[in-house]
Write a structure and sequence with these properties.
- The chain is built from 5 helices and 7 strands.
- The chain has 170 residues and is of the alpha/beta class.
- The radius of gyration is 20 Å and the shape is globular.
């Protein structure tokens, strides 16, 4: 009889360990950010991304910048990376596969993904009023709030905003 209880107890402990492990590892977020080297708002959000990446290690947040279309040569993209000291993976989406997958239309436009599901899309914050006006500071930090809420196991209250910037030209 003790053997059965021992087996049941071992099974329960195993389930608890697996649940704990899975609940910790499924919080890894992917952040896809569509940018254009010549879009001033794309450049303006890079500081925000650097701050966010300092707050979250690679086990929590994987940032990828996507340069859509084929308007920019690899040399122009390399210059953009070096000029802005970018240390994330940069993907040149020359065939617009990612543009189509996420239905991206603007640079910068962000897509925060958890377990292959977009949980937030739109603007990083509310600093960009239009293509030419960028406020000094944000009053709403949409992306940061979505990341923090998700990692804390809370609901993302605002899951979509309108991205402001430059239209994606393919």
């Amino acid at each position: 009889m003790f053997k059965y209880w021992k087996a049941i107890l071992f099974g329960l402990i195993t389930l608890v360990v697996i649940f704990f492990f899975v609940s910790k590892t499924d919080k890894k977020l992917d952040l896809i950010v569509f940018v254009a080297p010549e879009c001033p708002i794309s450049e303006a959000i890079l500081l925000n991304l650097k701050e966010i990446s300092k707050e979250h290690n690679a086990d929590e947040l994987n940032i990828k910048l996507v340069v859509p279309g084929s308007l920019y040569s690899p040399a122009e993209v390399d210059s953009f990376i070096k000029t802005n000291n970018i240390n994330y993976q940069v993907i040149i989406d020359s065939n617009a596969e990612l543009v189509k997958k996420y239905n991206a239309t603007i640079t910068p436009e962000v897509f925060l993904i958890l377990n292959d599901r977009v949980i937030y899309e739109g603007a990083v914050d509310d600093r960009a009023v239009d293509n030419e006006i960028i406020k000094q500071s944000a009053t709403q930090n949409y992306l940061r709030d979505a990341i923090e809420n998700t990692l804390a196991g809370k609901e993302v209250k605002i899951n979509k905003t309108k991205a402001v910037g430059c239209y994606i030209e393919l």
